[in-house]
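Whiteboard transcription, Tuesday session. T.W. wrote the C-alpha coordinates on the left side:
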Protein backbone atom coordinates (compact mmCIF):
# COMPACT_ATOMS: atom_id res chain seq x y z
CA UNK A 1 0.00 0.00 0.00
CA UNK A 2 1.06 3.61 -0.45
CA UNK A 3 1.18 5.55 2.80
CA UNK A 4 -0.20 9.09 2.81
CA UNK A 5 -0.01 11.78 5.44
CA UNK A 6 2.59 12.02 8.21
CA UNK A 7 4.67 8.92 8.81
CA UNK A 8 4.42 7.32 12.25
CA UNK A 9 7.39 8.09 14.44
CA UNK A 10 8.50 11.01 12.29
CA UNK A 11 6.31 13.80 13.57
CA UNK A 12 9.32 16.08 14.03
CA UNK A 13 12.65 16.45 12.32
CA UNK A 14 15.51 15.60 14.69
CA UNK A 15 17.80 18.46 15.65
CA UNK A 16 21.19 18.64 17.29
CA UNK A 17 20.89 18.51 21.10
CA UNK A 18 22.02 21.78 22.63
CA UNK A 19 22.02 22.30 26.40
CA UNK A 20 21.86 26.07 26.01
CA UNK A 21 18.72 27.13 24.11
CA UNK A 22 20.22 30.59 23.57
CA UNK A 23 22.95 29.05 21.33
CA UNK A 24 21.82 28.60 17.72
CA UNK A 25 21.60 24.97 16.73
CA UNK A 26 24.26 23.85 14.31
CA UNK A 27 23.13 22.17 11.10
CA UNK A 28 23.32 18.39 11.12
CA UNK A 29 26.36 16.83 9.51
CA UNK A 30 24.30 14.13 7.79
CA UNK A 31 20.81 13.87 6.36
CA UNK A 32 18.45 11.04 5.52
CA UNK A 33 15.99 11.87 2.75
CA UNK A 34 12.91 9.67 2.57
CA UNK A 35 10.55 9.23 -0.38
CA UNK A 36 7.32 7.31 -0.74
CA UNK A 37 7.27 5.18 -3.87
CA UNK A 38 4.48 4.01 -6.12
CA UNK A 39 5.41 0.43 -5.18
CA UNK A 40 4.23 1.01 -1.61
CA UNK A 41 7.69 1.24 -0.07
CA UNK A 42 9.68 3.96 1.64
CA UNK A 43 13.10 4.73 0.23
CA UNK A 44 15.90 6.49 2.04
CA UNK A 45 19.34 7.72 1.05
CA UNK A 46 22.05 9.43 3.03
CA UNK A 47 23.98 12.60 2.31
CA UNK A 48 26.39 14.90 4.11
CA UNK A 49 29.92 14.80 5.48
CA UNK A 50 29.02 12.06 7.99
CA UNK A 51 26.70 10.14 5.71
CA UNK A 52 28.00 6.87 7.14
CA UNK A 53 26.13 7.67 10.37
CA UNK A 54 22.94 8.23 8.39
CA UNK A 55 23.43 4.91 6.63
CA UNK A 56 23.89 3.27 10.04
CA UNK A 57 20.56 4.74 11.15
CA UNK A 58 18.82 3.28 8.12
CA UNK A 59 20.36 -0.12 8.74
CA UNK A 60 19.33 -0.10 12.42
CA UNK A 61 15.78 0.75 11.32
CA UNK A 62 15.64 -2.39 9.11
CA UNK A 63 15.93 -0.58 5.78
CA UNK A 64 17.44 -2.87 3.15
CA UNK A 65 20.30 -1.33 1.17
CA UNK A 66 21.09 -2.00 -2.48
CA UNK A 67 24.60 -1.69 -3.98
CA UNK A 68 23.91 1.88 -5.13
CA UNK A 69 23.16 3.49 -1.79
CA UNK A 70 19.35 3.37 -1.90
CA UNK A 71 17.60 1.88 1.16
CA UNK A 72 14.09 0.40 1.06
CA UNK A 73 11.49 -0.22 3.76
CA UNK A 74 8.26 -2.12 2.97
CA UNK A 75 5.15 -0.34 4.25
CA UNK A 76 2.63 -3.18 3.87
CA UNK A 77 2.77 -4.05 7.59
CA UNK A 78 1.80 -0.89 9.54
CA UNK A 79 3.05 -2.27 12.85
CA UNK A 80 6.51 -3.15 11.58
CA UNK A 81 6.71 0.11 9.63
CA UNK A 82 5.83 2.12 12.77
CA UNK A 83 8.45 0.28 14.79
CA UNK A 84 11.10 0.78 12.09
CA UNK A 85 10.39 4.50 11.81
CA UNK A 86 10.48 4.92 15.57
CA UNK A 87 13.88 3.25 15.59
CA UNK A 88 15.01 5.51 12.74
CA UNK A 89 13.98 8.66 14.60
CA UNK A 90 15.66 7.55 17.81
CA UNK A 91 18.91 6.58 16.07
CA UNK A 92 18.92 9.82 14.11
CA UNK A 93 18.57 11.87 17.31
CA UNK A 94 21.38 9.94 18.97
CA UNK A 95 23.74 10.33 16.01
CA UNK A 96 22.82 13.92 15.10
CA UNK A 97 21.28 13.01 11.74
CA UNK A 98 18.42 14.96 10.17
CA UNK A 99 15.50 13.02 8.67
CA UNK A 100 13.49 14.64 5.88
CA UNK A 101 10.35 13.26 4.25
CA UNK A 102 10.52 14.76 0.76
CA UNK A 103 7.40 15.97 -0.99
CA UNK A 104 9.00 15.25 -4.36
CA UNK A 105 8.24 11.96 -6.14
CA UNK A 106 10.89 9.30 -5.82
CA UNK A 107 13.33 9.79 -8.69
CA UNK A 108 13.12 6.13 -9.63
CA UNK A 109 9.37 6.48 -10.16
CA UNK A 110 9.97 9.55 -12.33
CA UNK A 111 12.56 7.65 -14.38
CA UNK A 112 10.12 4.75 -14.82
CA UNK A 113 7.49 7.12 -16.19
CA UNK A 114 10.02 8.64 -18.57
CA UNK A 115 11.15 5.20 -19.73
CA UNK A 116 7.57 4.15 -20.49
CA UNK A 117 7.21 7.20 -22.76
CA UNK A 118 10.34 6.38 -24.80
CA UNK A 119 10.80 3.97 -27.72
CA UNK A 120 12.41 0.67 -26.86
CA UNK A 121 12.90 -1.13 -23.58
CA UNK A 122 14.76 0.65 -20.79
CA UNK A 123 16.31 -0.38 -17.49
CA UNK A 124 16.24 2.12 -14.61
CA UNK A 125 18.83 2.30 -11.83
CA UNK A 126 18.90 4.89 -9.02
CA UNK A 127 22.23 5.88 -7.48
CA UNK A 128 22.96 7.92 -4.35
CA UNK A 129 25.69 10.58 -4.33
CA UNK A 130 26.15 11.30 -0.64
CA UNK A 131 28.95 13.87 -0.95
CA UNK A 132 29.58 16.81 -3.31
CA UNK A 133 32.64 15.19 -4.86
CA UNK A 134 30.51 12.20 -5.85
CA UNK A 135 27.87 14.52 -7.32
CA UNK A 136 30.47 16.38 -9.36
CA UNK A 137 32.11 13.09 -10.35
CA UNK A 138 28.93 12.35 -12.27
CA UNK A 139 29.89 15.09 -14.74
CA UNK A 140 32.98 13.17 -15.80
CA UNK A 141 30.72 10.62 -17.49
CA UNK A 142 28.23 13.07 -19.00
CA UNK A 143 28.30 13.51 -22.79
CA UNK A 144 26.77 16.91 -23.43
CA UNK A 145 27.35 20.12 -25.30
CA UNK A 146 28.12 23.27 -23.38
CA UNK A 147 30.67 23.73 -20.59
CA UNK A 148 30.73 20.80 -18.18
CA UNK A 149 27.37 19.47 -19.24
CA UNK A 150 25.33 22.69 -19.34
CA UNK A 151 22.09 22.35 -17.39
CA UNK A 152 23.31 19.29 -15.52
CA UNK A 153 26.36 21.21 -14.33
CA UNK A 154 24.12 24.05 -13.13
CA UNK A 155 21.90 21.60 -11.25
CA UNK A 156 24.85 20.08 -9.43
CA UNK A 157 26.27 23.50 -8.61
CA UNK A 158 23.06 25.02 -7.25
CA UNK A 159 20.95 22.15 -5.89
CA UNK A 160 23.58 19.48 -5.12
CA UNK A 161 21.17 16.60 -5.84
CA UNK A 162 22.23 13.62 -3.78
CA UNK A 163 20.59 11.04 -6.04
CA UNK A 164 20.44 10.40 -9.80
CA UNK A 165 18.51 7.96 -11.95
CA UNK A 166 20.08 6.21 -14.92
CA UNK A 167 18.15 4.88 -17.91
CA UNK A 168 19.77 2.29 -20.19
CA UNK A 169 18.09 1.16 -23.38
CA UNK A 170 18.30 -2.52 -24.23
CA UNK A 171 19.97 -3.29 -27.51
CA UNK A 172 21.81 -0.11 -28.53
CA UNK A 173 23.24 0.92 -25.15
CA UNK A 174 21.77 4.45 -25.08
CA UNK A 175 22.40 5.80 -21.57
CA UNK A 176 20.66 8.79 -19.98
CA UNK A 177 20.92 10.36 -16.51
CA UNK A 178 18.15 12.18 -14.64
CA UNK A 179 18.41 14.55 -11.67
CA UNK A 180 15.99 16.92 -9.97
CA UNK A 181 17.16 20.53 -9.72
CA UNK A 182 15.35 21.73 -6.60
CA UNK A 183 16.70 25.27 -6.90
CA UNK A 184 15.11 25.82 -10.31
CA UNK A 185 12.22 23.39 -9.66
CA UNK A 186 12.75 21.29 -12.75
CA UNK A 187 14.09 17.96 -13.92
CA UNK A 188 17.29 17.67 -15.96
CA UNK A 189 18.16 14.79 -18.28
CA UNK A 190 21.47 14.41 -20.08
CA UNK A 191 23.30 11.74 -22.03
CA UNK A 192 26.10 9.63 -20.64
CA UNK A 193 29.25 8.90 -22.63
CA UNK A 194 28.83 6.05 -25.14
CA UNK A 195 30.62 2.80 -24.40
CA UNK A 196 33.52 1.43 -26.49
CA UNK A 197 31.12 -0.69 -28.56
CA UNK A 198 29.48 2.52 -29.78
CA UNK A 199 32.58 4.73 -30.02
CA UNK A 200 36.17 3.67 -29.45
CA UNK A 201 37.18 7.19 -28.39
CA UNK A 202 34.57 9.89 -27.81
CA UNK A 203 35.76 13.17 -29.33
CA UNK A 204 32.56 14.60 -30.83
CA UNK A 205 30.27 17.03 -29.05
CA UNK A 206 27.35 15.37 -27.32
CA UNK A 207 23.69 16.36 -27.19
CA UNK A 208 22.44 19.22 -25.04
CA UNK A 209 20.68 18.40 -21.76
CA UNK A 210 16.92 18.96 -21.58
CA UNK A 211 14.97 20.48 -18.68
CA UNK A 212 11.28 20.63 -17.78
CA UNK A 213 9.22 21.24 -14.60
CA UNK A 214 6.94 18.18 -14.83
CA UNK A 215 7.36 14.49 -15.47
CA UNK A 216 5.20 14.62 -18.59
CA UNK A 217 7.13 17.55 -20.02
CA UNK A 218 10.57 16.07 -19.33
CA UNK A 219 9.53 12.74 -20.88
CA UNK A 220 8.38 14.57 -24.01
CA UNK A 221 11.63 16.58 -24.14
CA UNK A 222 13.70 13.42 -23.89
CA UNK A 223 11.66 11.66 -26.58
CA UNK A 224 11.41 14.57 -29.03
CA UNK A 225 14.73 16.38 -28.51
CA UNK A 226 17.34 14.51 -26.49
CA UNK A 227 17.10 11.09 -28.14
CA UNK A 228 17.21 12.46 -31.73
CA UNK A 229 20.15 14.69 -30.75
CA UNK A 230 21.83 11.71 -29.09
CA UNK A 231 21.43 9.56 -32.22
CA UNK A 232 22.79 12.37 -34.42
CA UNK A 233 25.78 12.99 -32.15
CA UNK A 234 26.55 9.27 -31.96
CA UNK A 235 26.39 8.99 -35.75
CA UNK A 236 28.72 11.97 -36.16
CA UNK A 237 31.22 10.34 -33.84
CA UNK A 238 30.95 6.96 -35.56
CA UNK A 239 31.39 8.49 -39.01
CA UNK A 240 34.38 10.54 -37.88
CA UNK A 241 36.00 7.48 -36.32
CA UNK A 242 35.30 5.29 -39.35
CA UNK A 243 36.59 7.92 -41.77
CA UNK A 244 39.77 8.45 -39.76
CA UNK A 245 40.46 4.71 -39.70
CA UNK A 246 39.75 4.31 -43.41
CA UNK A 247 41.90 7.27 -44.47
CA UNK A 248 44.80 5.97 -42.43
CA UNK A 249 44.46 2.46 -43.87
CA UNK A 250 44.19 3.70 -47.45
CA UNK A 251 47.24 5.90 -47.04
CA UNK A 252 49.28 3.18 -45.36
CA UNK A 253 48.34 0.10 -47.39
CA UNK A 254 47.44 -0.82 -50.94
CA UNK A 255 44.54 -3.24 -51.61
CA UNK A 256 45.92 -6.59 -52.69
CA UNK A 257 49.13 -6.12 -50.73
CA UNK A 258 47.93 -7.34 -47.38
CA UNK A 259 48.37 -10.85 -46.03
CA UNK A 260 46.96 -12.52 -42.96
CA UNK A 261 47.60 -12.30 -40.10
CA UNK A 262 46.93 -8.59 -40.35
CA UNK A 263 48.96 -5.98 -38.57
CA UNK A 264 47.26 -5.46 -35.16
CA UNK A 265 46.57 -1.76 -35.80
CA UNK A 266 45.02 -2.55 -39.18
CA UNK A 267 42.98 -5.42 -37.76
CA UNK A 268 41.71 -3.19 -34.96
CA UNK A 269 40.64 -0.49 -37.42
CA UNK A 270 38.80 -3.06 -39.54
CA UNK A 271 37.08 -4.49 -36.47
CA UNK A 272 35.85 -1.04 -35.47
CA UNK A 273 34.45 -0.46 -38.95
CA UNK A 274 32.71 -3.82 -39.12
CA UNK A 275 31.16 -3.15 -35.72
CA UNK A 276 29.62 0.02 -37.14
CA UNK A 277 28.42 -1.47 -40.46
CA UNK A 278 24.98 -2.67 -39.23
CA UNK A 279 24.27 0.71 -37.61
CA UNK A 280 25.39 2.66 -40.68
CA UNK A 281 23.30 0.57 -43.07
CA UNK A 282 20.26 0.79 -40.79
CA UNK A 283 20.71 4.57 -40.72
CA UNK A 284 20.81 4.76 -44.52
CA UNK A 285 17.67 2.64 -44.75
CA UNK A 286 15.69 4.51 -42.12
CA UNK A 287 12.13 5.35 -43.24
CA UNK A 288 12.61 9.13 -43.05
CA UNK A 289 15.59 9.08 -45.46
CA UNK A 290 15.24 9.62 -49.18
CA UNK A 291 14.30 6.61 -51.23
CA UNK A 292 17.41 4.76 -52.30
CA UNK A 293 18.27 4.53 -55.96
CA UNK A 294 18.43 1.04 -57.51
CA UNK A 295 22.22 1.26 -57.52
CA UNK A 296 22.35 2.27 -53.84
CA UNK A 297 20.01 -0.54 -52.86
CA UNK A 298 22.09 -3.03 -54.82
CA UNK A 299 25.27 -1.68 -53.25
CA UNK A 300 23.95 -2.10 -49.68
CA UNK A 301 22.58 -5.56 -50.45
CA UNK A 302 25.91 -6.61 -51.94
CA UNK A 303 27.85 -5.13 -49.00
CA UNK A 304 25.78 -7.08 -46.48
CA UNK A 305 25.78 -10.29 -48.52
CA UNK A 306 29.54 -10.22 -48.96
CA UNK A 307 30.18 -9.88 -45.24
CA UNK A 308 27.58 -12.51 -44.41
CA UNK A 309 28.91 -15.10 -46.87
CA UNK A 310 32.63 -14.46 -46.48
CA UNK A 311 32.82 -13.67 -42.78
CA UNK A 312 34.42 -10.70 -41.08
CA UNK A 313 37.88 -12.01 -40.29
CA UNK A 314 39.52 -12.53 -43.70
CA UNK A 315 40.97 -10.75 -46.70
CA UNK A 316 37.56 -10.36 -48.38
CA UNK A 317 36.24 -8.19 -45.54
CA UNK A 318 39.51 -6.25 -45.58
CA UNK A 319 39.26 -5.61 -49.32
CA UNK A 320 35.60 -4.63 -49.05
CA UNK A 321 36.46 -2.08 -46.39
CA UNK A 322 39.40 -0.55 -48.27
CA UNK A 323 37.73 -0.37 -51.69
CA UNK A 324 34.06 0.28 -50.92
CA UNK A 325 34.01 1.64 -47.39
CA UNK A 326 34.02 5.20 -48.77
CA UNK A 327 30.72 4.64 -50.55
CA UNK A 328 29.04 3.36 -47.41
CA UNK A 329 30.29 6.34 -45.40
CA UNK A 330 29.05 8.75 -48.08
CA UNK A 331 25.58 7.21 -47.95
CA UNK A 332 25.48 7.26 -44.15
CA UNK A 333 26.72 10.84 -43.97
CA UNK A 334 23.79 12.26 -45.98
CA UNK A 335 20.90 9.77 -46.03
CA UNK A 336 18.29 12.54 -46.36
CA UNK A 337 19.91 14.56 -49.16
CA UNK A 338 19.76 14.00 -52.93
CA UNK A 339 22.63 11.85 -54.18
CA UNK A 340 23.96 11.10 -57.63
CA UNK A 341 23.99 7.41 -58.40
CA UNK A 342 27.62 6.43 -59.10
CA UNK A 343 28.45 3.99 -61.87
CA UNK A 344 28.24 0.30 -60.97
CA UNK A 345 31.19 -0.65 -58.83
CA UNK A 346 33.51 -3.52 -59.67
CA UNK A 347 34.39 -5.57 -56.63
CA UNK A 348 38.12 -5.95 -56.21
CA UNK A 349 39.41 -9.29 -55.02
CA UNK A 350 42.59 -9.18 -52.92
CA UNK A 351 45.58 -11.22 -53.94
CA UNK A 352 48.51 -12.51 -51.88
CA UNK A 353 51.37 -10.06 -51.45
CA UNK A 354 53.70 -8.91 -48.66
CA UNK A 355 52.29 -6.81 -45.88
CA UNK A 356 53.42 -3.20 -45.94
CA UNK A 357 55.42 -1.99 -43.00
CA UNK A 358 53.39 1.18 -42.40
CA UNK A 359 51.35 1.20 -39.22
CA UNK A 360 49.60 3.63 -36.93
CA UNK A 361 49.33 3.56 -33.18
CA UNK A 362 45.65 3.56 -32.16
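and on the right, the sequence the group agreed on:
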Amino acid sequence: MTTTGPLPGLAATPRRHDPDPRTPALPPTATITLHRTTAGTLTGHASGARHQWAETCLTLASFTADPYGIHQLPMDDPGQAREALHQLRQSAQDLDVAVILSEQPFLGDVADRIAHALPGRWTVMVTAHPEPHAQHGLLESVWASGPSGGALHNALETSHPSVSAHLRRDGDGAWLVLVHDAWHAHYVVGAMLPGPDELDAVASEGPACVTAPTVEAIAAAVRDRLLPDYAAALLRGQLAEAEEDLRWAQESYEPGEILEPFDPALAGALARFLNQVPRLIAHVRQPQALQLSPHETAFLDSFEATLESDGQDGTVAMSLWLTEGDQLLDLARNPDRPRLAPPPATRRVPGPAPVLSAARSR
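Someone added at the bottom: The chain has nine helices and ten strands.
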